[in-house]
Design brief:
GO molecular function, one term (chain C): ATP hydrolysis activity
Oligomer: heterotrimer
CATH superfamily of chain A: MetI-like
Mean pLDDT of chain A: 79
Helix content of chain A: over 70%
Mean pLDDT of chain B: 77
Protein name (chain C): ABC transporter ATP-binding protein
Keywords (chain C): ATP-binding, Nucleotide-binding, Transport
Largest sheet of chain A: none
Low-confidence stretches of chain A: 1-23
Strand content of chain B: under 5%
Family (chain C): Belongs to the ABC transporter superfamily.
Number of domains of chain A: 1
Low-confidence stretches of chain B: 1-12
Structural class of chain B: mainly alpha
Structural class of chain A: mainly alpha
Helix content of chain B: over 70%
Pfam families (chain C): ABC_tran, oligo_HPY
Number of helices of chain B: 14
Chains: A mainly alpha (302), B mainly alpha (349), C alpha/beta (336)
Bound molecules: adenosine-5'-triphosphate, magnesium ion
Chain lengths: 302, 349, 336
C-alpha cells in the first residue's frame, strides 16, 4: 500500500509540475529546442537553404546559365565571389540555384516515404495478424537491399533523368525503416488505456487511429523523417555525382562536385570546395536537427 | 498438458540454437528471392519506362533489326513482356534464377561473362574492404572507448562532433576532399621533397599498381568513414551502459583494477553490438565502394559499377549489383549465425 | 429494487496460446474467465474481488464489449450483448460504460478535458445535438465536482483524483444505466480514494446507476457494495450480500482474503488469526483439476481433486459457496 501511495504522490508531483510546464509534448519539445544552440543553428541553415531553393533571386541577380566562355575557370574575386566554372558560369549563382534540386528531392521523397511508411506501419501495427506478417516480411525484403545499390540499378536503367525519377526511386526503396518505426509506436500506443476507453465507447477504427493512436505515435516518425531529409539530400548529390541523378543542363551540387573534381588536380579547388561545403552544411543541419528533436521529444532524457 | 503438436515435437529434441538456425535459414530464402525480385522488377520497370538497354549499346547509331535482336538475346531482354508496362516479367525472372543457380549471371556489353569480370576485379576490392573493416574496427572502437570511458569529457566531445560530421557528409565529398587535400596538395609536396615510395604511395591521388596496399590506405579510410562513425558511437553507448552494470561494480568491489575491469569485462560485452553492426555496415561498404573506387580510380568491383554507370551499361550494373546483394545477404547470414553460436546470451526468439 | 439490468450467464474467455510464426498452432489457452454467472439489479453495487491475475479486468472487458467472449451470454434488457453487431451494438454500448483503473493512462494526453468528456457525443451524435454538447460537457464536469472552466486544460494539468473524476464524467456522458469500475481507486492516494468512492455513491443515488465495482482487496469494496462476489482463477467461488461475505465467509479462499484486511483497532490486532496462503496462484493456462483452490487449501482432500465444487448454497453456507467443505470460521470477529 505504501508503495502505491508513494507512486501516487510522485505521479501527483509530476502532474503538478505539468501545470507549471506547458500544454503538450510538442510544446515541451519546442521549449527544449529553443534552448539548444545546435538546434537553432541547424534550423537557421535549413531556413537559409530553403530560401535559396524557393527564391534564388533573393540571393543573386546573376543568371547561372548566362556563361561568358572567356571567363572560364576564374578564381574567386569581387565580381565572382565563388569564381566561375570551366564554361564561365558564375559559381556563386550556380551554388545558390543548386539548392533547389536537393530540397525538392528531399521534401517530396520524404513526404512520399512518410506517407507510404505511415500507412504500412499503421496497418501492420493496428490490425496485426496476417496483415502484419505480410507487410513486415515485405519490409524485411526491401530492407535487405542496400538503398543506394537499389537506386543505382533503377536509375541506370533510365535514359532520361529528372528530379522525379530520383524521387520515385527513393520513395519505392525508402519506406521500410519508417514503416518499422510507425509500426512499433502504433503497437506501443494501441493498447494504451485511453485507446481502450475510446474503443469501449464505440469509436470507429478510423477515429481510434487518427484521433488517438497517430497523434501519440507520431513523434519517432517525425524525428526519422527529419534525418531522412538530410539523407536524401546526400543521396541525390551522390547519384548526380555518379551521373545517374540529374544531368548537366540542370544545376545540382552533386553535378558541380563531379565536374569541379576534374579540375582539382589542375589547381581550381574552389570548384570542388564551394558546392561541397553547401551540400555538407545542409545535410549536417537536417541530421543535427533530427538528433535534437529526438532528444527533445524523449521524455526520458528530460 | 501441452496442446496439440507438443507431443510430436518431443521426439525431435530440437535445441533452441538449432531451431534459431533453422528459422534463420528458412527466412533467408524468401528474403533472398524477394531482394532479387525487387532488383529484377526495378530493372523491368526501367526498361518498360525507358526502352531497352540493348539499344543503348549502339549509342547514336541505329542498329539493324538483326543486330538489335542479337544484342537483346545477349542481355536477356528479348521477351515481349518488356514492352508491356506493368508486366513483372515473371518468366524472365524465373529463367534468370535458373541461370544464376548454374553460375551464369549474364554478360556485359562486350559479351564477357559477368562472373569472370567479378573474379578479375574482386581481389583488389577484397583488399580495400579488408583494410576498411580493419580501420573501422581499430579507429572506431578506440574512439568509442576514449569517449565512453568518461562521458562529457573533452575526448567525448571531440568524438561526438567528428562522428556527426562523418555521418552527415556524403562519402563522395569526403573522398573528393581527402583526395584534394592529402593526395593533390600533400602528395605533390611529398613527391617534390623526394619522399620514399611507400610514403608517396600512401598519399597518392589514385591507386598505384606498384603500391597495391599502401595506395589503398587512404581510399580505405574514406570507405570506412561512415561505418567508423557508427562503430564509435555504438562502442561509446554500450561501454557506458556496461560500465554502469552491476557486474562491473562487483568486479571493482572484488578489487580488480579499473583497467582490468574495463578491458576484460565491460569492453568484451560492449563489442557485441559492434560486431552485429558489421553486417549492416557491410551494405554501406558495398555502396561506398562504388563511389570510392570511382574517385580513386581503383579497378575493383566498385570501379566496375562506377564505370558501367558512367558509360550507361545498364546490364552490367544490374548483374554486378545482383552479385553484390547476394554477397551482402550471405555475409549477414553468416554474421548472424556466428553471433548466435558464439554468444549464448542472445535471445533466440 | 428487484429489476435486473444485467445478467451474465456461463461467461468464458480463453486466450489462445499459439506457437510458430507462419503457421500458428494453438498449444493451449489462458482461461482468464471460466464460467462466470452474475446478476446486477437496478441501483445496486456488485463488488468483484480477487487477487491480481484472477480475471477481473477480463470480466470487465467482456461486459463492456471490449473483448468477445469465448462462450456464454451477457444479457442487457433481455438482449445478448455478446451476439450483437454493428449499430445495435453501438446503441447497446451506450448503456454500459467503464471507469478505468489508472487515471494517468486512461486519458489521451493530447486531448483537452472538453474533448475527452465530449468524445462520447461525437461517437454517438444522436445523443446530443452539436449546439448542446459544450453545455453538457460543462454540466458533466460540475456533476463530478470539477470546474467547467477547466474545459480547455490537458489531463496532465490535473491531479490523480481529478483525472479519475474526468474519467467518471466521460463514463456518465451517455447516461448509462450500468457502470463497470475496474479498480477505480487503487491508483489513488488513500484520502482521495474516499473522495472518489463518495462521489460514486452520490452519483448512484442521483442517477440511479448500477455498478460493478472491481477491486483486489475486500476493504475497498466493503464500503460501497451491496453484494460481493469473490473470484479465484477465472471463477467466482463465493457470492452473497456484503454482510454474509464479510461476517460469515464460508470458502477458505474468501476467509484468507478477509483475514488479510488490516484491522483498524490496534488493541484487537492480536486476537485475529491471520491465514497465510502457501504457494503461488497456479497458472490460468493450466488450472488444477477439481477445485481450483485445492493446491493452496488447508482443507483439501481427495474429493477436491476429482470433483469441481459448484457455486451453490450448502449445509455450512447460507449463501452460494464453491467449496465441498464450506463452513464458517470466525476470522474477523475482531473487526466488527
Ligand atoms: N489479451 C490477452 N491475451 C492473453 N492473455 C491475457 C490477455 N489479457 C489477459 N490475459 C491473462 O488473463 C489472466 C487474467 O488477466 P486480468 O487482466 O483479467 O487479471 P486481473 O484480475 O484484472 O488482474 P489485476 O488485478 O492485475 O488487474 C492473466 O493471467 C492474464 O495474463
Ligand atoms: Mg485488472
Amino acid at each position: 500500500m505504501t508503495e502505491q501511495v508513494e507512486s501516487v504522490i510522485s505521479a501527483d508531483r509530476s502532474a503538478q509540475a505539468g501545470i507549471e510546464r506547458s500544454a503538450s509534448l510538442w510544446a515541451d519539445a519546442w521549449r527544449d529546442l529553443r534552448r539548444r544552440p545546435v538546434a537553432i543553428a541547424s534550423a537557421v541553415v535549413i531556413v537559409l537553404v530553403s530560401s535559396m531553393a524557393a527564391f534564388p533571386w533573393l540571393w543573386t541577380r546573376t543568371d547561372p546559365r548566362d556563361c561568358p566562355i572567356q571567363l572560364s575557370k576564374a578564381t574567386p574575386s569581387a565580381a565572382h565571389i565563388f569564381g566561375t566554372n570551366e564554361l564561365g558560369c558564375d559559381y556563386y549563382a550556380m551554388t545558390i540555384y543548386g539548392a533547389r534540386a536537393s530540397i525538392i528531392v528531399a521534401l517530396v521523397s520524404t513526404s512520399l516515404v512518410l506517407l507510404v511508411g505511415a500507412l504500412v506501419g499503421m496497418a501492420a501495427g493496428f490490425y496485426g495478424g496476417w496483415v502484419d506478417s505480410v507487410l513486415s516480411r515485405l519490409a524485411d525484403i526491401f530492407f535487405a537491399l542496400p538503398f543506394l545499390l537499389g537506386a543505382l540499378v533503377f536509375l541506370s536503367m533510365l535514359r532520361s533523368h529528372s528530379v522525379w525519377t530520383i524521387v520515385l526511386a527513393f520513395a519505392v526503396l525508402g519506406w521500410p525503416p519508417l514503416a518499422r518505426i510507425v509500426r512499433a509506436s502504433v503497437l506501443a500506443t494501441k493498447n494504451m488505456d485511453y485507446v481502450q476507453a475510446a474503443r469501449s465507447l464505440g469509436a470507429s477504427d478510423r477515429r481510434l487511429l487518427f484521433r488517438h493512436i497517430l497523434p501519440n505515435a507520431a513523434a519517432p516518425a517525425i524525428v526519422v523523417a527529419t534525418i531522412l531529409l538530410g539523407t536524401y539530400v546526400a543521396s541525390e548529390a551522390t547519384l548526380s555525382y555518379l551521373g545517374i541523378g540529374l544531368q548537366p543542363p540542370e544545376i545540382s551540387w552533386g553535378i558541380m562536385i563531379a565536374q569541379g573534381q576534374s579540375y582539382v588536380t589542375s589547381g581550381y579547388p574552389h570548384l570542388l570546395l564551394f558546392p561541397a561545403a553547401f551540400l555538407s552544411a545542409t545535410v549536417l543541419a537536417f541530421i543535427l536537427l533530427g538528433d535534437a528533436l529526438r532528444d527533445a521529444l524523449d521524455p526520458k532524457l528530460r | 498438458m501441452g496442446g496439440p503438436g507438443a507431443g510430436g515435437l518431443k521426439g525431435l529434441e530440437v535445441t533452441p540454437l538449432g531451431r534459431y538456425l533453422a528459422r534463420r535459414l528458412l527466412q533467408f530464402v524468401p528474403t533472398l528471392l524477394g531482394a532479387l525480385f525487387i532488383l529484377h522488377y526495378l530493372m523491368t520497370v526501367g526498361i518498360q519506362l525507358n526502352g531497352d538497354p540493348a539499344r543503348a549499346v549502339f549509342g547514336d547509331r541505329t542498329p539493324s533489326q538483326s543486330q538489335l535482336q542479337a544484342m537483346q538475346r545477349v542481355f536477356g531482354t528479348d521477351d515481349p513482356c518488356f514492352e508491356q508496362a506493368g508486366n513483372p516479367c515473371l518468366t524472365v525472372f524465373v529463367h534468370r534464377l535458373e541461370n544464376m543457380a548454374q553460375g551464369d549471371f549474364g554478360v556485359d556489353s562486350r559479351e564477357r561473362p559477368v562472373v569472370t569480370l567479378i573474379a578479375e576485379h574482386a581481389p583488389i576490392t577484397a583488399r580495400l574492404a579488408l583494410l576498411a573493416i580493419l580501420i573501422e574496427l581499430l579507429v572506431g572502437v578506440t574512439a568509442g572507448v576514449l569517449a565512453g570511458l568518461r562521458g562529457g569529457s573533452f575526448w567525448d566531445y571531440v568524438v561526438k562532433v567528428s562522428t556527426t560530421m562523418l555521418v552527415a557528409i556524403p562519402i563522395f565529398v569526403v573522398g573528393a576532399v581527402t583526395q584534394l587535400v592529402l593526395g593533390v596538395e600533400f602528395g605533390s609536396w611529398l613527391k617534390g621533397v623526394g619522399a620514399p615510395d611507400l610514403l608517396t604511395g600512401l598519399f597518392s591521388i589514385a591507386y598505384r599498381t606498384d603500391q597495391p596496399w599502401a595506395s589503398l590506405v587512404m581510399p580505405a579510410f574514406v570507405l570506412a568513414s561512415l561505418s567508423l562513425a557508427t562503430t564509435a558511437r555504438l562502442t561509446r553507448t554500450s561501454l557506458m551502459e556496461n560500465l554502469r552494470g552491476d557486474y562491473v561494480r562487483t568486479a571493482t568491489a572484488k578489487g580488480l583494477t579499473r583497467n582490468r575491469v574495463v578491458g576484460v569485462h565491460a569492453l568484451r560485452n560492449s563489442l557485441i553490438p559492434v560486431i552485429t553492426n558489421l553486417g549492416i555496415s557491410f551494405g554501406n561498404l558495398l555502396a561506398g565502394a562504388v563511389v570510392t573506387e570511382g574517385i580513386f580510380n581503383i579497378r575493383g568491383i566498385g570501379g566496375l559499377v562506377f564505370g558501367a554507370v558512367a558509360t550507361g551499361e545498364a546490364a552490367t550494373v544490374v548483374s554486378v549489383v545482383t552479385i553484390l546483394v547476394l554477397v551482402y545477404l550471405l555475409c549477414n547470414l553468416i554474421i548472424d549465425v556466428l553471433y548466435a553460436v558464439l554468444d549464448p546470451r542472445i535471445r533466440l526468439d | 429494487m428487484s429489476d435486473v439490468v444485467l445478467e451474465v450467464r456461463d461467461l468464458t474467455k480463453h486466450f489462445p496460446l499459439t506457437k510458430g510464426i507462419v503457421f500458428k498452432r494453438q498449444v493451449g489457452a489462458v482461461r482468464a474467465v471460466d464460467g462466470v454467472n452474475l446478476t446486477l439489479r437496478r441501483g445496486e453495487t456488485l463488488g468483484v474481488v480477487g487477487e491480481s491475475g484472477c480475471g477481473k479486468s477480463t470480466l470487465a472487458k467482456l461486459i463492456i464489449g471490449l473483448e468477445k467472449p469465448t462462450s456464454g451470454e451477457i444479457l442487457v434488457q433481455g438482449q445478448n450483448l455478446a451476439r450483437m453487431r454493428g449499430s445495435a451494438l453501438r446503441r447497446a454500448r451506450r448503456n454500459i460504460q467503464l471507469v478505468m483503473q489508472d487515471p494517468y493512462t486512461s486519458l489521451n494526453p493530447r486531448m483537452t478535458v472538453g474533448d475527452i468528456v465530449g468524445e462520447p457525443f461525437q461517437i454517438h451524435p444522436e445523443v446530443a445535438p452539436r449546439s448542446d454538447r459544450r453545455r453538457r460537457v460543462g454540466e458533466l464536469l460540475e456533476l463530478v465536482g470539477l470546474s467547467p472552466d477547466h474545459i480547455n486544460r490537458y489531463p496532465h494539468q490535473f491531479s490523480g483524483g481529478q483525472r479519475q473524476r474526468i474519467g467518471i464524467a466521460r463514463a456518465l456522458a451517455l447516461r448509462p444505466e450500468i457502470i463497470v469500475c475496474d479498480e477505480p481507486v487503487s491508483a489513488l492516494d488513500l484520502s482521495i480514494q474516499a473522495q472518489v468512492i463518495n462521489l460514486l455513491e452520490r452519483l448512484q443515488e442521483e442517477l440511479g446507476l448500477s455498478y460493478i465495482f472491481i477491486a483486489h482487496d475486500l476493504s475497498v469494496v466493503r464500503h460501497i457494495s451491496d453484494r460481493v462476489a469473490v473470484m479465484y482463477l477465472g471463477k467466482i467461488i463465493e457470492t452473497g450480500v456484503d454482510t454474509e461475505i464479510y461476517d460469515h465467509p464460508t470458502h477458505p479462499y474468501a476467509q484468507a482474503l478477509l483475514s488479510a484486511v488490516p484491522v483498524p483497532d490496534p488493541t484487537l490486532r492480536g486476537l485475529r488469526d491471520q491465514i497465510i496462503l502457501e504457494g503461488d496462484v497456479p497458472s490460468p493456462a493450466n488450472p488444477p483439476s477439481g477445485c481450483r483452490f485445492r493446491t493452496r487449501c488447508w482443507k483439501a482432500r481427495e474429493v477436491c481433486v476429482e470433483q469441481e465444487p459448484a457455486l451453490v448454497e450448502r449445509e455450512g453456507s447460507a449463501h452460494p459457496s464453491a467449496c465441498h467443505f464450506a463452513e464458517e470460521r470466525d476470522v474477523v470477529h475482531a473487526t466488527d
